[in-house]
Amino acid sequence: MTQRSAIAHPCLSCGACCAAFRVAFHWSESAPADPGGVPEALTAPVRPHVLAMRGTDARDPHCIALEGVVGQAVHCRIYAARPSPCRELQASYEDGTHSAQCDRARARYGLAPLTPATWTQPM
After folding, report:
1. Which end of the chain has the lower number of beta carbons within 10 A, N or C?
2. How many CB atoms are located within 10 Å of the residue 105 CB?
3. Other C-beta atoms lying within 10 Å of the C-beta of residue 4
4. CA–CA distance, 61 with 11 (Å, rounded to integer)
5. Strand pairing class (50-53; 24-26)
6. Is 65 exposed, middle or buried (0-12, 13-18, 19+ CB in 10 A)?
7. Any residues with CB less than 8 A from the CB of 53 and at least 6 apart, and which?
């Protein structure tokens, strides 16, 4: 009997989306309005009722909650409390569909686009 190898989630060696786009969201997703939401200290006002993750509203965006090196090994310090734009962005083909946004972020860092095979190849 052969043991099936685990497939490493490609986002854990990427992080490009966290360092390519502005992450803007309604203030109600942040503390103190939502005690389990984005920590207020990690946000910056963008316009009335809209906040952004600090570091993402810049010419060269890089989310303050992203730790590690893009394209090598990364993780989100607030993964469980991340805002809706982060929850909604899917890696290409993670659910079987293509994500142009994922491809654009990866290209910005010289990373190849994900393919359906990404999700079936063992680590």
Report:
1. N
2. 24
3. 6
4. 17
5. antiparallel
6. buried
7. 23, 38, 42, 43, 44, 63, 64, 65, 83
What type of residue is 84? S
Q: Look up residue 95 and give its amino acid.
A: D
Residues 41-86 have pLDDT tens digits of 999 999 999 999 999 999 999 999 999 999 999 999 999 999 999 9
Half-sphere exposure (Cβ direction) of 76: Cα atoms closer than 13 Å: 20
- How many Cβ atoms from other residues are within 10 Å of residue 11's Cβ? 19
Cα(1)–Cα(83) distance, integer angstroms: 43
pLDDT digits (tens, 9 = 90+) for 73-84: 999 999 999 999
| pTM for this entry | 0.88
| Neighbour order of strands in the sheet with 50-53 | 24-26, 50-53, 43-47
Which residue in the block uniquely carries the two structure tokens 């600090």?
Answer: 54
In the Cβ-directed half-sphere of 112, how many Cα atoms lie within 13 Å?
6
Tokens in use for 70? 């893009």
